[in-house]
TrEMBL record:
Domain MacB-like periplasmic core: 21-218
Pfam families given in the database record: FtsX, MacB_PCD
Gene Ontology molecular function: any one: transmembrane transporter activity
Bilayer-spanning residue ranges: 21-42, 283-307, 340-366, 372-395
Residues in ABC3 transporter permease C-terminal domain copies: 291-405
Localization of this protein: Cell membrane
Lineage: superkingdom: Bacteria
Bilayer disposition of the protein: Multi-pass membrane protein
InterPro entries documented for this protein: ABC3_permease_C, MacB_PCD, Macrolide_Exporter_MacB
One cellular component (GO) term of this entry: plasma membrane
UniProt name for this protein: Putative ABC transporter permease YknZ
Family indicated by similarity: Belongs to the ABC-4 integral membrane protein family.
Keywords per UniProt: Cell membrane, Membrane, Transmembrane, Transmembrane helix
Amino acid sequence: MNLIENIKEGLRSIQSNLLRTVLTALIVSIGIMSLVGILTAVDSIKYSIDQTFSSLGANSYDIVSKGYTNRYSQNGRQGKVYPPITFLQARQYKDISGENARVSLSAFISGATIVKNGNVKTNPNINVQAGDENYLINENYNVAVGRPFSTSELENGANVAIVGSEIGDKLFKGKSPVGNSIFMLGRRFKVVGELEKSGNDMGGGGADRLVIIPLITGNQMPRQKALTYEIKTMILKKENLFYAMAESTGIMRKVRRDPLGQEDSFEINRSDSMLKSMNEITGYLKVGGGLVGFITLLGASIGLMNIMMVSVTERTREIGVRKALGATARQIRQQFLIEAIVICFLGGMAGVLFGVLMGNAVASLIGEGAFIVPWLWVIVGLLVCVAVGLISGYYPAFRASKLDPIESLRYE
Protein backbone atom coordinates (compact mmCIF):
# COMPACT_ATOMS: atom_id res chain seq x y z
CA MET A 1 0.00 0.00 0.00
CA ASN A 2 1.48 3.32 -1.03
CA LEU A 3 0.66 6.69 0.55
CA ILE A 4 -2.18 7.52 -1.89
CA GLU A 5 -3.83 4.17 -1.32
CA ASN A 6 -3.41 4.61 2.40
CA ILE A 7 -5.14 8.01 2.24
CA LYS A 8 -8.04 6.50 0.27
CA GLU A 9 -8.34 3.70 2.81
CA GLY A 10 -8.39 6.20 5.63
CA LEU A 11 -11.14 8.21 3.94
CA ARG A 12 -13.19 5.04 3.35
CA SER A 13 -12.85 4.21 7.04
CA ILE A 14 -14.06 7.69 7.97
CA GLN A 15 -17.03 7.37 5.60
CA SER A 16 -18.01 4.00 7.06
CA ASN A 17 -18.14 5.56 10.56
CA LEU A 18 -19.75 8.84 9.54
CA LEU A 19 -21.65 9.58 12.77
CA ARG A 20 -18.56 9.07 14.93
CA THR A 21 -16.53 11.21 12.52
CA VAL A 22 -19.07 14.05 12.66
CA LEU A 23 -19.24 14.00 16.46
CA THR A 24 -15.45 13.94 16.73
CA ALA A 25 -15.09 16.76 14.21
CA LEU A 26 -17.62 18.80 16.21
CA ILE A 27 -15.40 18.56 19.28
CA VAL A 28 -12.51 20.05 17.31
CA SER A 29 -14.69 22.62 15.53
CA ILE A 30 -15.95 24.02 18.85
CA GLY A 31 -12.36 24.58 19.99
CA ILE A 32 -11.35 26.25 16.71
CA MET A 33 -14.58 28.27 16.65
CA SER A 34 -13.84 29.71 20.10
CA LEU A 35 -10.23 30.52 19.12
CA VAL A 36 -10.99 32.09 15.72
CA GLY A 37 -14.22 33.69 16.94
CA ILE A 38 -12.61 35.55 19.82
CA LEU A 39 -9.66 36.72 17.73
CA THR A 40 -11.96 37.76 14.86
CA ALA A 41 -14.13 39.76 17.25
CA VAL A 42 -11.04 41.50 18.67
CA ASP A 43 -9.74 42.33 15.18
CA SER A 44 -13.12 43.64 14.07
CA ILE A 45 -13.51 45.78 17.20
CA LYS A 46 -9.95 47.09 16.75
CA TYR A 47 -10.75 48.02 13.14
CA SER A 48 -13.86 49.89 14.29
CA ILE A 49 -11.82 51.70 16.97
CA ASP A 50 -9.14 52.61 14.41
CA GLN A 51 -11.78 54.07 12.09
CA THR A 52 -13.36 56.04 14.93
CA PHE A 53 -10.06 57.45 16.14
CA SER A 54 -9.03 58.19 12.57
CA SER A 55 -12.04 60.48 12.26
CA LEU A 56 -11.10 62.06 15.60
CA GLY A 57 -7.55 62.82 14.50
CA ALA A 58 -5.57 59.66 15.20
CA ASN A 59 -3.96 60.03 11.77
CA SER A 60 -2.93 63.61 12.40
CA TYR A 61 -0.30 65.63 14.21
CA ASP A 62 0.00 69.21 15.39
CA ILE A 63 2.91 71.56 14.84
CA VAL A 64 3.31 74.34 17.42
CA SER A 65 6.05 76.76 18.39
CA LYS A 66 8.34 75.24 21.02
CA GLY A 67 8.03 76.84 24.43
CA TYR A 68 5.91 79.76 23.25
CA THR A 69 2.61 78.82 24.82
CA ASN A 70 3.84 76.27 27.41
CA ARG A 71 7.26 76.81 28.91
CA TYR A 72 9.22 73.61 29.36
CA SER A 73 12.31 72.46 31.24
CA GLN A 74 15.37 70.54 30.13
CA ASN A 75 17.36 68.72 32.85
CA GLY A 76 15.88 71.02 35.49
CA ARG A 77 16.72 74.20 33.58
CA GLN A 78 14.32 76.51 31.83
CA GLY A 79 14.13 75.66 28.14
CA LYS A 80 14.67 78.20 25.42
CA VAL A 81 11.56 80.06 24.23
CA TYR A 82 11.43 80.26 20.45
CA PRO A 83 9.55 82.85 18.36
CA PRO A 84 5.93 82.11 17.48
CA ILE A 85 4.95 80.49 14.21
CA THR A 86 3.88 83.43 12.09
CA PHE A 87 1.02 83.59 9.63
CA LEU A 88 3.47 83.70 6.72
CA GLN A 89 5.38 80.64 7.96
CA ALA A 90 2.18 78.67 8.44
CA ARG A 91 1.01 79.55 4.93
CA GLN A 92 4.38 78.58 3.47
CA TYR A 93 4.20 75.20 5.18
CA LYS A 94 0.68 74.62 3.84
CA ASP A 95 1.70 75.60 0.29
CA ILE A 96 4.77 73.33 0.31
CA SER A 97 2.84 70.37 1.72
CA GLY A 98 0.54 70.51 -1.30
CA GLU A 99 -1.89 67.64 -1.79
CA ASN A 100 0.07 65.04 0.17
CA ALA A 101 -1.90 65.88 3.31
CA ARG A 102 -4.87 67.95 4.45
CA VAL A 103 -3.43 70.89 6.36
CA SER A 104 -5.42 73.28 8.54
CA LEU A 105 -4.17 76.49 10.12
CA SER A 106 -5.59 77.98 13.30
CA ALA A 107 -4.76 80.51 15.99
CA PHE A 108 -6.01 80.90 19.54
CA ILE A 109 -7.44 84.43 19.71
CA SER A 110 -8.85 84.72 23.21
CA GLY A 111 -9.92 82.76 26.26
CA ALA A 112 -12.28 83.68 29.11
CA THR A 113 -14.23 85.81 26.64
CA ILE A 114 -17.69 87.29 27.21
CA VAL A 115 -20.04 87.06 24.20
CA LYS A 116 -23.12 89.31 24.07
CA ASN A 117 -26.38 89.50 22.19
CA GLY A 118 -28.19 92.66 23.19
CA ASN A 119 -28.57 92.61 26.97
CA VAL A 120 -27.88 88.88 27.24
CA LYS A 121 -24.32 87.73 27.75
CA THR A 122 -22.43 84.54 28.47
CA ASN A 123 -20.16 83.75 31.38
CA PRO A 124 -16.48 84.67 30.83
CA ASN A 125 -15.58 81.13 29.79
CA ILE A 126 -15.77 81.30 25.99
CA ASN A 127 -12.77 80.51 23.77
CA VAL A 128 -12.32 82.24 20.43
CA GLN A 129 -10.43 80.39 17.72
CA ALA A 130 -9.57 81.44 14.16
CA GLY A 131 -9.43 78.74 11.48
CA ASP A 132 -9.15 78.22 7.74
CA GLU A 133 -11.24 76.17 5.31
CA ASN A 134 -9.90 72.81 6.62
CA TYR A 135 -10.17 73.64 10.31
CA LEU A 136 -13.67 72.22 10.89
CA ILE A 137 -13.04 68.89 9.15
CA ASN A 138 -9.59 68.36 10.68
CA GLU A 139 -10.94 69.03 14.18
CA ASN A 140 -14.00 66.85 13.46
CA TYR A 141 -16.44 69.69 14.14
CA ASN A 142 -19.82 69.34 12.46
CA VAL A 143 -22.13 72.26 11.72
CA ALA A 144 -25.60 71.34 12.98
CA VAL A 145 -27.40 74.52 11.87
CA GLY A 146 -26.32 76.94 9.17
CA ARG A 147 -23.16 76.52 7.09
CA PRO A 148 -19.36 76.70 7.21
CA PHE A 149 -17.51 79.83 6.08
CA SER A 150 -17.66 80.65 2.38
CA THR A 151 -14.53 81.15 0.29
CA SER A 152 -15.06 84.91 0.04
CA GLU A 153 -15.55 85.21 3.83
CA LEU A 154 -12.30 83.33 4.42
CA GLU A 155 -10.31 85.31 1.87
CA ASN A 156 -11.67 88.75 2.79
CA GLY A 157 -11.65 88.32 6.56
CA ALA A 158 -15.38 88.89 7.06
CA ASN A 159 -16.84 89.45 10.53
CA VAL A 160 -18.70 86.12 10.64
CA ALA A 161 -18.68 83.41 13.28
CA ILE A 162 -19.67 79.81 13.99
CA VAL A 163 -20.73 79.33 17.61
CA GLY A 164 -20.98 76.36 19.97
CA SER A 165 -24.34 74.99 21.07
CA GLU A 166 -24.03 76.30 24.64
CA ILE A 167 -23.51 79.86 23.34
CA GLY A 168 -26.52 79.56 21.05
CA ASP A 169 -28.74 78.26 23.87
CA LYS A 170 -27.58 81.00 26.27
CA LEU A 171 -27.90 83.98 23.93
CA PHE A 172 -30.86 82.99 21.77
CA LYS A 173 -32.97 80.91 24.20
CA GLY A 174 -33.52 77.86 21.98
CA LYS A 175 -33.92 79.83 18.75
CA SER A 176 -31.54 79.42 15.82
CA PRO A 177 -28.61 81.84 16.12
CA VAL A 178 -27.98 81.77 12.36
CA GLY A 179 -28.45 85.22 10.80
CA ASN A 180 -28.25 87.03 14.15
CA SER A 181 -25.34 89.03 15.51
CA ILE A 182 -23.08 88.61 18.53
CA PHE A 183 -20.67 91.11 20.09
CA MET A 184 -17.23 90.17 21.44
CA LEU A 185 -13.67 91.54 21.57
CA GLY A 186 -14.91 94.95 20.52
CA ARG A 187 -16.46 93.73 17.25
CA ARG A 188 -19.84 92.61 15.99
CA PHE A 189 -20.02 89.27 14.19
CA LYS A 190 -22.79 87.70 12.13
CA VAL A 191 -23.50 84.07 13.08
CA VAL A 192 -23.52 81.79 10.02
CA GLY A 193 -23.52 78.41 11.76
CA GLU A 194 -23.87 76.51 15.01
CA LEU A 195 -21.80 73.44 15.94
CA GLU A 196 -23.23 70.11 17.04
CA LYS A 197 -23.40 69.58 20.77
CA SER A 198 -20.25 67.79 21.90
CA GLY A 199 -20.51 67.68 25.70
CA ASN A 200 -17.84 68.56 28.22
CA ASP A 201 -14.21 68.09 27.24
CA MET A 202 -12.20 67.58 30.47
CA GLY A 203 -14.33 70.27 32.10
CA GLY A 204 -13.62 72.84 29.40
CA GLY A 205 -16.88 72.60 27.50
CA GLY A 206 -15.27 71.31 24.31
CA ALA A 207 -16.81 72.82 21.18
CA ASP A 208 -19.93 73.94 23.08
CA ARG A 209 -18.14 77.03 24.45
CA LEU A 210 -16.22 77.83 21.29
CA VAL A 211 -16.52 80.64 18.75
CA ILE A 212 -14.76 80.10 15.42
CA ILE A 213 -13.95 83.02 13.12
CA PRO A 214 -12.10 83.11 9.77
CA LEU A 215 -8.30 82.95 10.00
CA ILE A 216 -7.79 86.27 8.19
CA THR A 217 -10.27 87.94 10.54
CA GLY A 218 -8.39 86.68 13.57
CA ASN A 219 -5.09 87.83 12.08
CA GLN A 220 -6.46 91.37 11.66
CA MET A 221 -7.83 91.74 15.17
CA PRO A 222 -5.93 93.94 17.68
CA ARG A 223 -3.92 92.02 20.26
CA GLN A 224 -1.38 92.55 23.00
CA LYS A 225 1.17 90.03 21.71
CA ALA A 226 1.88 88.27 18.44
CA LEU A 227 -0.31 85.32 17.54
CA THR A 228 1.26 81.91 17.24
CA TYR A 229 -0.33 79.70 14.61
CA GLU A 230 -1.01 76.02 15.07
CA ILE A 231 -0.74 73.66 12.12
CA LYS A 232 -2.68 70.40 12.03
CA THR A 233 -1.70 67.91 9.33
CA MET A 234 -4.14 65.11 8.56
CA ILE A 235 -2.69 62.04 6.79
CA LEU A 236 -5.19 60.12 4.67
CA LYS A 237 -3.26 56.82 4.94
CA LYS A 238 -2.23 55.78 8.44
CA GLU A 239 0.79 53.80 7.22
CA ASN A 240 2.34 57.02 5.85
CA LEU A 241 2.18 58.82 9.21
CA PHE A 242 5.83 58.49 10.26
CA TYR A 243 7.11 59.37 6.80
CA ALA A 244 4.84 62.43 6.70
CA MET A 245 6.03 63.56 10.15
CA ALA A 246 9.67 63.33 9.04
CA GLU A 247 8.82 65.25 5.87
CA SER A 248 6.97 67.92 7.88
CA THR A 249 9.99 68.32 10.15
CA GLY A 250 12.15 69.08 7.12
CA ILE A 251 9.62 71.54 5.70
CA MET A 252 9.23 73.39 9.00
CA ARG A 253 12.99 73.63 9.55
CA LYS A 254 13.25 75.18 6.11
CA VAL A 255 10.34 77.55 6.70
CA ARG A 256 11.58 78.54 10.17
CA ARG A 257 15.18 78.74 8.92
CA ASP A 258 16.54 76.64 11.75
CA PRO A 259 20.35 76.53 11.47
CA LEU A 260 22.02 73.20 10.74
CA GLY A 261 22.86 71.39 13.97
CA GLN A 262 20.39 73.43 16.05
CA GLU A 263 17.38 71.74 17.63
CA ASP A 264 13.94 72.26 16.13
CA SER A 265 12.25 75.52 17.03
CA PHE A 266 8.87 73.78 16.95
CA GLU A 267 7.17 70.69 18.33
CA ILE A 268 5.28 67.95 16.52
CA ASN A 269 2.65 66.26 18.69
CA ARG A 270 0.76 63.17 17.61
CA SER A 271 -2.95 62.90 18.38
CA ASP A 272 -3.23 59.15 18.99
CA SER A 273 -2.16 58.56 22.60
CA MET A 274 -5.61 57.14 23.43
CA LEU A 275 -5.44 54.91 20.36
CA LYS A 276 -2.16 53.46 21.66
CA SER A 277 -3.88 52.61 24.94
CA MET A 278 -6.75 50.94 23.09
CA ASN A 279 -4.27 48.91 21.02
CA GLU A 280 -2.65 47.70 24.23
CA ILE A 281 -6.06 46.65 25.56
CA THR A 282 -6.91 44.76 22.36
CA GLY A 283 -3.50 43.07 22.60
CA TYR A 284 -4.40 41.77 26.06
CA LEU A 285 -7.77 40.63 24.73
CA LYS A 286 -6.02 38.64 22.01
CA VAL A 287 -3.80 36.93 24.57
CA GLY A 288 -6.83 36.13 26.74
CA GLY A 289 -8.79 34.87 23.74
CA GLY A 290 -5.87 32.73 22.63
CA LEU A 291 -5.62 31.13 26.09
CA VAL A 292 -9.36 30.35 26.12
CA GLY A 293 -9.12 28.83 22.64
CA PHE A 294 -6.01 26.83 23.61
CA ILE A 295 -7.74 25.36 26.67
CA THR A 296 -10.77 24.42 24.56
CA LEU A 297 -8.54 22.82 21.93
CA LEU A 298 -6.69 20.90 24.65
CA GLY A 299 -9.99 19.39 25.74
CA ALA A 300 -10.84 18.63 22.10
CA SER A 301 -7.49 16.88 21.55
CA ILE A 302 -8.03 14.68 24.62
CA GLY A 303 -11.50 13.77 23.35
CA LEU A 304 -10.12 12.98 19.90
CA MET A 305 -7.39 10.75 21.34
CA ASN A 306 -9.97 8.87 23.41
CA ILE A 307 -12.17 8.29 20.35
CA MET A 308 -9.19 7.14 18.27
CA MET A 309 -8.24 4.69 21.03
CA VAL A 310 -11.76 3.28 20.94
CA SER A 311 -11.49 3.06 17.15
CA VAL A 312 -8.26 1.05 17.43
CA THR A 313 -9.91 -1.35 19.89
CA GLU A 314 -12.98 -1.78 17.67
CA ARG A 315 -10.86 -2.43 14.58
CA THR A 316 -8.34 -4.80 16.13
CA ARG A 317 -9.48 -7.68 13.90
CA GLU A 318 -9.33 -5.43 10.80
CA ILE A 319 -5.74 -4.45 11.71
CA GLY A 320 -4.86 -8.15 12.03
CA VAL A 321 -6.25 -8.86 8.56
CA ARG A 322 -4.27 -5.97 7.05
CA LYS A 323 -1.05 -7.15 8.67
CA ALA A 324 -1.70 -10.70 7.51
CA LEU A 325 -2.05 -9.36 3.94
CA GLY A 326 1.32 -7.63 4.16
CA ALA A 327 0.62 -4.18 5.62
CA THR A 328 3.61 -2.87 7.53
CA ALA A 329 3.57 -1.16 10.92
CA ARG A 330 4.42 2.14 9.17
CA GLN A 331 1.38 1.83 6.87
CA ILE A 332 -0.91 1.08 9.81
CA ARG A 333 0.41 4.19 11.61
CA GLN A 334 -0.12 6.26 8.48
CA GLN A 335 -3.72 5.10 8.13
CA PHE A 336 -4.71 6.07 11.67
CA LEU A 337 -2.76 9.34 11.55
CA ILE A 338 -4.48 10.27 8.28
CA GLU A 339 -7.87 9.54 9.81
CA ALA A 340 -7.10 11.75 12.81
CA ILE A 341 -5.76 14.60 10.66
CA VAL A 342 -8.71 14.48 8.23
CA ILE A 343 -11.20 14.51 11.12
CA CYS A 344 -9.41 17.49 12.68
CA PHE A 345 -9.17 19.30 9.35
CA LEU A 346 -12.88 18.88 8.64
CA GLY A 347 -13.70 20.08 12.13
CA GLY A 348 -11.24 22.95 11.70
CA MET A 349 -12.85 24.11 8.45
CA ALA A 350 -16.26 24.19 10.11
CA GLY A 351 -14.82 25.87 13.20
CA VAL A 352 -13.08 28.58 11.15
CA LEU A 353 -16.27 29.33 9.21
CA PHE A 354 -18.47 29.54 12.31
CA GLY A 355 -15.72 31.38 14.22
CA VAL A 356 -15.47 34.15 11.61
CA LEU A 357 -19.26 34.53 11.52
CA MET A 358 -19.53 34.49 15.32
CA GLY A 359 -16.68 37.01 15.78
CA ASN A 360 -18.14 39.50 13.32
CA ALA A 361 -21.60 39.07 14.84
CA VAL A 362 -20.25 39.86 18.31
CA ALA A 363 -18.33 42.87 16.96
CA SER A 364 -21.44 44.18 15.17
CA LEU A 365 -23.37 44.09 18.46
CA ILE A 366 -20.68 46.18 20.17
CA GLY A 367 -20.26 48.74 17.40
CA GLU A 368 -20.55 49.26 13.68
CA GLY A 369 -17.54 47.89 11.80
CA ALA A 370 -16.51 46.21 8.58
CA PHE A 371 -16.80 42.43 8.03
CA ILE A 372 -13.34 41.11 8.89
CA VAL A 373 -11.82 37.83 7.69
CA PRO A 374 -8.60 37.39 9.71
CA TRP A 375 -6.65 35.28 7.24
CA LEU A 376 -3.73 34.94 9.64
CA TRP A 377 -5.94 33.38 12.29
CA VAL A 378 -7.68 31.21 9.68
CA ILE A 379 -4.33 29.76 8.60
CA VAL A 380 -3.17 29.41 12.22
CA GLY A 381 -6.44 27.66 13.11
CA LEU A 382 -6.06 25.12 10.30
CA LEU A 383 -2.41 24.49 11.18
CA VAL A 384 -3.43 23.97 14.80
CA CYS A 385 -6.00 21.42 13.61
CA VAL A 386 -3.35 19.45 11.77
CA ALA A 387 -1.09 19.62 14.83
CA VAL A 388 -3.92 18.43 17.11
CA GLY A 389 -4.60 15.55 14.70
CA LEU A 390 -0.94 14.51 14.70
CA ILE A 391 -0.56 14.74 18.47
CA SER A 392 -3.88 13.11 19.31
CA GLY A 393 -3.62 10.40 16.66
CA TYR A 394 0.00 9.40 17.10
CA TYR A 395 -0.36 7.23 20.22
CA PRO A 396 -3.46 5.34 18.99
CA ALA A 397 -1.72 4.86 15.61
CA PHE A 398 1.46 3.67 17.32
CA ARG A 399 -0.53 1.26 19.45
CA ALA A 400 -2.37 -0.07 16.39
CA SER A 401 0.92 -0.62 14.52
CA LYS A 402 2.32 -2.71 17.41
CA LEU A 403 -0.59 -5.16 17.57
CA ASP A 404 0.33 -8.76 16.97
CA PRO A 405 -1.43 -10.00 13.78
CA ILE A 406 -2.15 -13.48 15.23
CA GLU A 407 -3.67 -12.09 18.42
CA SER A 408 -5.58 -9.49 16.40
CA LEU A 409 -7.18 -12.16 14.18
CA ARG A 410 -8.35 -14.00 17.29
CA TYR A 411 -9.91 -10.80 18.75
CA GLU A 412 -13.71 -10.93 19.06
